[in-house]
Specification:
Length: 364
């Protein structure tokens, strides 16, 4: 006969499994929705730019921000004049574009491709001679102008649902419990005044410096959820871990799914943050559907969440029924609360651009 402790553990495992299934179907629902599809289709119309053009855009956007011409310090969608018109957006009066360098290519032909001296440039409309091969090559660059979406007006820009920061108090003792587990792994927990100190993120795990930093200018519920996420990174994604080289998207899905489970066991509903966050990162992993990614990480996530929950001496939801992902279930336990949704998160692309490999950042 199982002892009470063992049966409680089994119950908990079953609840975590159930919770993960609900997370998976919530992700599935989100990524199959119309808003999501439209946002992806929109983003797909912006081709990747060269590194030097990205730098040119950033520098000029920073100048426009300092001059008060654009509302956000980070560029969002950047398009040429005609491309913008094609998307139903007109450049607003008085907004000057950012200069980038557009490649100018020429066609070259030769009958002896291995001889670099033999290539001749073809004129406009000129056909190669019989037996000649033709290649295009960049010959120069000419200035072209692009505008940030915030410099234009017109049809609304489709955006995927963004993670919403949790609001309200943190469950009693949870911060200290999680911080203790982070410190057991040899990391120092730092609280920083604002996101400007940690690359615009909510939290950062630095495996080299052995620090976990969480910003303090958000509600305690969001801070403690962030710490749970970073603890997930500490336990699962250090450079010494087998899976250290996996796609960053998978790491983010794992850390945030674990944070959802830890939050749920303490009566916190993190779904307003977790579902868009997990969906967005899962969608960045090439070659698989987001739902497949979430499913594939389930076992690792559950094990990690279980190990964390076992080591905490916090008051956890009595009957193991977590709230969240199921609006019809009444909430139990003294820590149960309904977090409200506040400010949207910064632009995903902007956050991506400064990612460094030794650092796991939380925050889209
Ligand atoms: Zn993260």
């Amino acid at each position: 006969m199982a002892t009470t402790r063992e049966s409680t553990r089994e119950q908990r495992e079953a609840k975590l499994d159930e919770l993960h299934e609900r997370l998976t179907s919530a992700v599935e629902q989100l990524v199959s929705g119309e808003d999501w599809r439209r946002a992806l289709a929109f983003a797909a119309r912006f081709r990747a730019r060269s590194f030097s053009n990205t730098l040119l855009i950033w520098a000029q956007h920073a100048g426009a921000y300092e001059a008060g011409r654009v509302p956000d310090p980070m560029p969002s969608y950047v398009a040429g004049y005609r491309q913008g018109q094609g998307l139903g957006r007109q450049v607003e009066k008085g907004q000057s574009g950012y200069m980038i360098l557009a490649p100018v290519t020429g066609r070259f032909a030769t009958a002896t491709p291995s001889d670099p001296e033999s290539w001749r440039r073809l004129g406009k409309g000129e056909k190669p001679r019989p037996g000649e091969v033709v290649r295009s090559k960049m010959i120069t660059a000419k200035p072209a102008y692009v505008w940030d979406a915030s410099q234009t007006a017109g049809d609304p820009i489709p955006e995927p649902p963004a993670p919403k920061l949790l609001e309200g108090e943190a469950p009693v003792g949870l911060w200290d419990g999680l911080a203790g587990l982070v410190e057991e792994r040899g990391f120092t927990v730092l609280r920083v005044p604002h996101e400007g100190m940690i690359h615009g993120a909510n939290g950062v795990t630095d495996y080299t410096a052995k620090t976990v930093a969480v910003r303090e200018n958000m509600d305690p519920a969001a801070q403690v959820k962030t710490l749970a996420h970073e603890l997930g990174h500490v336990l699962l994604h250090g450079p010494d871990q087998e899976d250290a080289r996996q796609h960053r998207g998978i790491g983010e899905v794992e850390a945030e799914s674990a944070a959802l489970m830890i939050g749920a066991a303490h009566g916190m509903d993190t779904s307003g943050y977790t579902i868009p966050y997990v969906s967005t990162w899962a969608a960045r992993v090439d070659g698989k559907e987001p739902v497949e990614i979430v499913k594939a990480t389930g076992e690792r996530v559950r094990k990690t969440a279980l190990a964390i929950l076992d080591q905490l001496d916090t008051v956890q939801v009595a009957n193991g029924t977590p709230p969240g992902l199921d609006r019809d279930t009444p909430q139990h336990g003294h820590a149960a609360r309904e977090p409200r949704r506040v400010e949207p998160f910064p632009e995903p692309e902007a956050q991506m651009a400064s990612a460094t490999p030794a650092i796991q950042r939380q925050g889209l």
